[in-house]
Amino acid sequence: MAFDAVINAHAAVILFFVLSGYVLQATLAQRPQSPISFYVRRAFRIYPAVITATAFALLVVSIMIAQVPKSAGWLSDELMVRQLAGIDLALCFLAVSSSLITPLWTVIVEIVGSACMPLISFAGRNRIIGPALVIVLAVMSPLLMNAEPLLLASLGYLVNFAVGAGIYRITPGLQDLALRRPRLTVLVMVGAAIGLLFSRLVVKLLVFHHLTPLVTLYYDPWLSLIETIWAGLLIAAIVACPNGVGVLRIPFAMFLGDISFSVYLLHYPVMLAVASGLSLVQGYDLGGAYAPVVLALLTAAVTIPLAWINFRLIEKPGIALGRAFSSLTGRPAPAQA
Asked: Does residue 43 belong to any structural domain of this protein?
């Protein structure tokens, strides 16, 4: 219960969206291209891995639903609600539904954010319109984040992409500040990391006066905005360092960065497969005290090699195809100021 209450998975999601806005803005600024060319690259970057993970999840559910006993509790329930067909299944393959792979909701947000990035990037060229857009998106965020359907709710996260794009534009100024005030940069980096990790816990303790499960207030828009501020400060401090954060450049960190998208997509169906296998072991209790730790370790051990294979055989060829097709979509857009 304590681990579930303290861990802040949503902060990682917000950090990813802000970082995505930064990277996509860098791509648009450093590699002038038409919006269509940009969309083609993003589609080939996202969809091959999504389709592979969705097919794998469908296979796991189809095989395990008949093997897992109904007495398996949460696992049986998870498999039952993921028996999809027809239009529901098609929407999962199109990455507009997270009914089969729950974490896919963040990929839906990423697709919406990618679709809006050329407009966000264009607005950011103006020193008044760019910041004004961030403020407007921040005001709209609480109104949209819990809306239905999910595609509409995804608009509530656009402020994260706009913040990331804005950080890219002021990176030279941030780097100049870091050279003059290196201690301040480190202080902001450490403080932002702590704030990002624990601000949600502090707020929930103030509201409920006791530890609460991870799902409590998970999609709260105001907490998301607080995390956006911390995430923005953290990324700004990182990019301000002339050589970046050294730990991010070590080979293992770069390896994890390469396979991170596949890890994120595959870990959930792998978890279902591993849990299903454990449930068939005579006398094993999925609700036991150490069961979550065992499940997490086995899931990681299976997911990482699968993610590496998916990255090498699916993601990299997809990226190459996107690059090839984007070159056929017309002349590049003018370079940005």
From this structure: yes
